Amino acid sequence: MSLLTVKNLNVAFRLGKQELPALMDVSFSLDRGERIAFVGESGAGKSILGFSIVNLISKPGYIQSGSIKLNKKEIIGLNRRQMQEIRGKRIAMIFQDPMMTLNPVLTIGQQLVEAIKSHTNITYRDAKNIAIEKLLSVQIASPERRFNQYPHELSGGMRQRVIIAAILLLNPDVIIADEPTTALDVTIQAEILQLLLEICKKNDVALILISHDLGIVSKVAERTLVMYAGRIVEEGPTLELINDPQHPYTQGLLNALPQMALPGQRLNQIKGSMPSLADRPSGCAFHNRCPYAMEKCKDQQPEFIHSGISTVSCFMIEEMLEEERNAQEGLL
């Protein structure tokens, strides 16, 4: 049974009399303990998806339609108090910048204890002991001393560890990590990702990793979903998707990785840029950047089809599979 199920989710932003679509028919499921990733350029809709799941979409954005179920219970439409029971306690979110989460005028300890006491009725002493234990569990040295420090006294990597410790206080079922290592150097990035991976495995916690970097995703996620202009365009097991990308956009993302270019060679890039919400092309939104675009790509939206062990939304792949089937039938 799926722990989290998102079905036909549509999110829009209201600008005057315009309704600008940000997510369109996004569907996926997540099992307990499973680790999945959403990848794509800035503006693909990855973060909006994360915010939608925890009901943090602010006006003029709103959920138009669709379903988000946690353990088969619909959470779209819950009131503020009901959502507060889920947010943090059942589904927790790690943001790009830990200073967005940490209060600069409160000590680390004050914030951790407050988080515990807001959901339980234990004493301050017990809450403090739990907080220190969690700081230790995320490999923070001298947790008693860090407990009394302010966020600005810690490094970026240390602050991100504090956020992970805060999330673990309430033993959530799902962690949504929105570009959790963007502001960190490469060494610290690897440490934070390894920490997240170990925590999810040890506690059987499901993870949704939001990233633009397929290199990072390959180290953490079991399954990857590629997003473009508010839609999922490809989904499959991470290693298979990286080794044999089907959608031209996925191929472009992989070719743009620095390791794909020789030393001194210009980096590959996808021509053009992600369309804005107000300027989304008709048909397949990627057609004006795609080297394989056909006439029907301009005004028709391709359906999802199976290609190998992945699913992909692309007319080119559809025609290639049709040609293969015809060739095999001809041999018979």
From TrEMBL:
InterPro entries assigned to the protein according to its UniProt record, in alphabetical order: AAA+_ATPase, ABC_Ni/Peptide_Import, ABC_transporter-like_ATP-bd, ABC_transporter-like_CS, Oligopep_ABC_C, P-loop_NTPase
**Which Pfam families does the protein's record reference?**
ABC_tran, oligo_HPY
The ABC transporter domain covers which part of the protein?
A: 6-254
The GO biological-process annotations, alphabetized, read as:
peptide transport; transmembrane transport
Q: What class of enzyme is it?
A: translocase
Going by the UniProt record, its keywords in alphabetical order are: ATP-binding, Cell membrane, Membrane, Nucleotide-binding, Transport
State the EC number(s).
7.4.2.9
Localized where? Cell inner membrane
- Does the keyword Glycoprotein feature in the UniProt annotation? no
- Asked if Lyase is a keyword of the record, the answer is no
| Membrane topology category | Peripheral membrane protein
Catalysed reaction, written as an equation: a dipeptide(out) + ATP + H2O = a dipeptide(in) + ADP + phosphate + H(+)
User: What molecular functions are annotated in GO for this chain?
Assistant: ATP binding; ATP hydrolysis activity
Family stated for the protein in its record: Belongs to the ABC transporter superfamily.
Q: What is this protein called?
A: ABC-type dipeptide transporter
